[in-house]
Structures are given as structure tokens and as C-alpha cells.
Design a protein that fits this description.
Layout: E1 4-6, H1 14-18, E2 28-37, E3 45-48, E4 54-61, E5 66-67, E6 70-75, E7 86-88, E8 95-99, E9 102-106, E10 109-111, E11 113-122, H2 124-129
Antiparallel strand pairs: 1-8, 2-11, 3-9, 4-8, 4-11, 5-10, 6-7, 6-9
Length: 130
């Protein structure tokens, strides 16, 4: 069922992403930073889907953390939305692009800390039609 693009390893082509119905109408975004840490931060994040059409998740850093993989299932609304499809490891500088309706979560961080910039891209036209 795909939907996960690991930019640091190539991932999908822009033509594949452009095939989504909202691809040419992304007109606003929301961004924030998530801090995962074994002491004093979030430990992980339960499985969920985002309030976006497309999400960019960039690992900003802190070398040396362990655990805290990014786990993906199918797309919200599909028959596989609860079926695990892959687990990606984050490293500083790695960016992962995925559809907002792709179910995902962050495993518990075992040691150290990780900072992630999250950018949700949205389409007013797509949301108005829903």
C-alpha cells in the first residue's frame, strides 16, 4: 500500500506524489517541533494519522539516541489501516515524507533525545470538498 517516502533513500518520484488528488492545491501548512527524550521529553507517540494531506518529518538531531523508530501501517479508511507495513529508523538529517492519512507512530525512545520538525501541508479545496 506504500505511501511512505523516505527522502534520504530516494522514495517516490514527484510524478507519483503529483498523482494524488490534492497534489496541486496544497495552499497552507502547520509546523512544529517534537522532542523525544528518555528524560524530560515525550517517550514516543501512539499510532495515529495526521490532520494533513502530506506530512514531512525531519530529524533535526541529537546523535546517539537509540530506539524511537517510526512505525507505519496502512492508510486511514483502508482495509489495511491497522496492518503494520514498515519501521524506519530516524537519523539526524533524514527526512520522511508521507500522506497524512498514513497511520503511523513513534516507538519509545530507549536512550538519549531526538528532535523532529514536523510540517503538515494542507489543501483548502480538498478539505472543503470532503
Amino acid at each position: 500500500e506504500g505511501g511512505v517516502v523516505n527522502i534520504s533513500r530516494g522514495g517516490h518520484t514527484k510524478e507519483e506524489v503529483a498523482g494524488e488528488i490534492f497534489a496541486h492545491s496544497l495552499d497552507h501548512h502547520h509546523s512544529f517541533v517534537v522532542h523525544y527524550a528518555d528524560k524530560g521529553g515525550d517517550l514516543g507517540l501512539d499510532m495515529h494519522h495526521d490532520a494533513s494531506e502530506v506530512t514531512l518529518n525531519v530529524c533535526l538531531g541529537r546523535d546517539g539516541f537509540t530506539g524511537s523508530g517510526l512505525r507505519f501501517c496502512g492508510r486511514f479508511g483502508s482495509s489495511t489501516h491497522r496492518k503494520m507495513s514498515c519501521v524506519l529508523s530516524h537519523t539526524p538529517g533524514r527526512a520522511i515524507l508521507h500522506l497524512g492519512r498514513q497511520r503511523h507512530g513513534a516507538d519509545t525512545i530507549a536512550s538519549g533525545e531526538r528532535l523532529n520538525l514536523i510540517l503538515w501541508a494542507r489543501s483548502s479545496a480538498f478539505r472543503a470538498a470532503a
